[in-house]
Design a protein that fits this description.
heterodimer, A: 263 residues, mainly alpha, 13 helices, globular, B: alpha/beta, seven-stranded mixed sheet, six-stranded mixed sheet, 19 strands
């Protein structure tokens, strides 16, 4: 059987890229879990351990005066960990996978997306845990059905940043360090463990500049029935995600041709 | 269009890398960054290269390491851009620039073959359909579900080429990766490439293996420091390249000093020792089977040659040759190179010791010499070559004439004087 590799049905429908991304994600996860004894239970175990610690610390050790605090922190952590590990991985996705960049028929733009998609599995694993907690705390609202849309906005936002940061790191090798540092700073400027309404008024604007603040607020509004962020914050964040994705797409296309010479 | 694959006055430069980042930080601190950017030099990897390959033809590229072979193949594959000039390649060209570096060691052969198929441009449906043929071509049916880390290098290579063998591209860009691996599989790969060519596939093939280029290519080009030095019929270009190598080796041989005479005993530079001496062959010892030093061996008995090669300029890849010459008439009885080893040879200051065992050495009575050489891996010039320096004699009391004592069995089919079978 011979195949000319152009003009297949999948390619004409534009399915090749999604197929490739899905396969590369699956490959990475399978490779990581194949020979472990717990296998696919590991990501789930991570989430359960995370939750156990949260419940212990915030219901027995510390009391910050936020209702349903373990669920509050858990939902925030899930979204934040995805954001943080996805972008960290994306920043080195081309440098560390030089051999894939050198595959002439593999669209390079797929690689940062794979890096973003792999830690999303943790989000998927956390979803049933989160659901169970919402039921237990009696906070199950119908609005929770909109939660995936917030994740989608976050995904678009992350793709945009990943497309800029991954090839950028090839040209400026300091960039992965800058990304790690920026994420560390940003973590403290994101209301994961605290509430936006508990901080001094004069600093609130600083946190509001952070798109993750709005996304986390939105997550909690939908899941826990907490107050919604301002409508302009939501619009602004969605617009930012869209602009970044477009900028990322064009930025990547611009930086791509020179990648091979720099790696 | 008459040509399938065209390089038209192609120039390619790479940015020259500075040693480390510290320099840049210092430059920023001292506000000299604009100056640094302005002075960024370029290194020309290709200079004004024009090559045209007709439909279904196979073009070989030869040249020393760093001559621009890989750059040409990369550009033809669509990796990177030319600095000047244009390249025309048919749509859907497939490339084999490296084999096996995308393989995941934890996953099975089958899974890896599937990934490789997707990466090489197939859709999931195509990849699923070809999977069986890939495993079959690679002859890995038994191992298909074993994790890749249990595979030998040869098996990985077979798997990777198995995927390539399933493609039917209009043009194929081949680096010499297929030159490693066992001879039988290599032949199978070349056979598959011939099949593709019969179907109209144009091939661009870079290799260090001059014999292979001569045998399988229609035409060849010789790249030297990024420039086209010769092009034409494969056999002619290879011949010119070999002549060039001999002259270049003579040109880089340092003038013999007295010190060398003392140190190396019978070896004299420019007399029976040639090459740049960046790498040297320090000890050459001929022994018989039980490790006894040998200057006389009996034909049919084993002979072992042990040599130590040292580098005088840091780790250097090299290719080693060993040959046997009959002294009286300078007949080359045979010559072989380390290219037939599966792995590449890198020599460092600590030295590499190689032992070549001839078991048995089937030569007729006479005086012979073991000629050893160590060369730049692209055969650009020799680092060190000992000519007729390490001598030995062969005794053969069976009175065979010629050079080679062929293993033979005489069996009288019919006793002399007997009549025809009854």
């Amino acid at each position: 059987m011979d195949f000319a590799i152009t003009r297949t049905l999948g390619a004409r429908l534009g399915l090749r890229q999604p197929q490739l991304i899905l396969h590369l994600v699956r490959r990475e996860l399978t490779s990581a879990h194949r020979f472990t004894m717990l296998g696919w239970a590991w990501p789930l175990a991570r989430q359960l351990a995370q939750l156990g610690v949260l419940v212990f610390v915030f219901s027995s050790v510390l009391d910050l005066g936020i209702p349903d605090f373990p669920v509050y922190v858990f939902s925030g952590l899930v979204a934040w960990s995805w954001f943080s590990s996805g972008l960290t991985e994306a920043s080195t996705s081309l440098i560390d996978q030089r051999h894939l960049v050198f595959q002439p028929r593999l669209p390079t733009a797929v690689l940062p997306i794979v890096a973003v998609a792999v830690p999303f599995v943790d989000v998927l694993m956390a979803a049933p845990v989160l659901l169970l907690m919402l039921i237990l705390s009696g906070e199950l609202h119908l609005t929770a059905l909109l939660f995936p849309f917030v994740l989608a906005v976050q995904f678009v936002l992350m793709c945009g940043v990943a497309w800029l940061v991954a090839p950028g790191s090839v040209y400026v090798r300091d960039l992965p360090n800058i990304v790690t540092l920026a994420l560390m700073v940003l973590f403290y400027l994101t209301p994961v463990f605290y509430s936006l309404h508990k901080i001094p008024q004069q600093f609130e604007w600083l946190l509001q500049l952070n798109p993750m603040t709005t996304l986390l607020e939105l997550d909690r509004a939908l899941l826990l029935g907490l107050p919604y962020p301002g409508v302009w914050h939501i619009v602004g964040t969605v617009a930012l995600a869209a602009v970044l994705a477009v900028a990322g797409w064009f930025g990547f296309a611009r930086m791509r041709p020179g990648l091979v010479d720099q790696l | 269009m008459r040509h399938a694959l065209v390089f038209e006055n192609v120039w390619k430069s790479y940015p020259r890398w500075t040693q480390d980042g510290a320099r840049t930080s210092r430059a920023i601190l001292t506000r000299r960054l604009p100056e640094i950017l302005r002075h960024r030099e370029a290194r020309w990897a290709l200079q004004d290269v024009t090559v045209r390959v007709g439909h279904g033809r196979m073009m070989g590229i030869i040249g020393a390491n760093g001559a621009g072979k890989s750059t040409m193949l990369r550009l033809a594959s669509g990796l990177g851009q030319t600095t000047r000039g244009t390249i025309v390649v048919p749509d859907g060209t497939a490339s084999v620039l490296s084999l096996g570096d995308t393989l995941d060691l934890e996953l099975s052969g089958r899974e890896n073959a599937y990934t490789a198929a997707l990466i090489s441009g197939m859709s999931t449906a195509q990849a699923r359909r070809t999977l069986k043929s890939v495993i079959e071509f690679a002859e890995l049916e038994e191992f298909a579900d074993a994790p890749m880390r249990t595979y030998s290098d040869g098996m990985k290579l077979r798997l990777a080429f198995g995927v390539v063998a399933q493609l039917n591209p209009p043009a194929l860009i081949l680096d010499e990766v297929i030159a490693v691996g066992d001879a039988r599989f290599q032949a199978k790969c070349m056979e598959r490439i011939d099949e593709l060519r019969a179907g109209g596939t144009t091939v661009l093939f870079a290799s260090h293996n001059l014999d292979e280029i001569e045998r399988s290519c229609d035409e060849a080009i010789w790249l030297q420091r990024g420039k086209l030095r010769a092009s034409g019929e494969a056999a002619e270009v290879v011949e010119a390249y070999r002549d060039g190598m001999r002259l270049d080796t003579l040109a880089v041989t340092p003038l013999g000093g007295e010190e060398d005479d003392v140190e190396d005993g019978a070896l004299r530079l420019g007399d029976n020792r040639f090459g740049s001496q960046e790498l040297t062959i320090d000890e050459v010892v001929l022994t018989t089977a039980n490790g006894v030093l040998a200057d006389r061996v009996t034909s049919g008995q084993p002979l072992e040659v042990e040599m130590t090669i040292r580098s005088h300029r840091g780790p250097t890849p090299a290719v080693v040759t060993i040959g046997v010459t009959r002294l009286e008439d300078q007949v080359m009885c045979f010559e072989a190179s380390s290219e037939e080893l599966a792995s590449e040879l890198t020599v460092d200051e600590g030295g590499v010791t190689l032992r070549v065992a001839f078991d048995p050495i089937d030569l007729t009575t006479g005086e012979y010499a073991v000629d050893v050489g160590v060369y730049e891996p692209g055969w650009a010039y020799g680092y060190d070559y000992h000519w007729n320096a390490h001598r030995f004699a062969v005794d053969d009391d069976r009175g065979v004439k010629g050079v080679y004592v062929a293993p033979r069995r005489w069996a009288p089919v019919r006793p002399a004087g007997a009549s025809a079978p009854r």
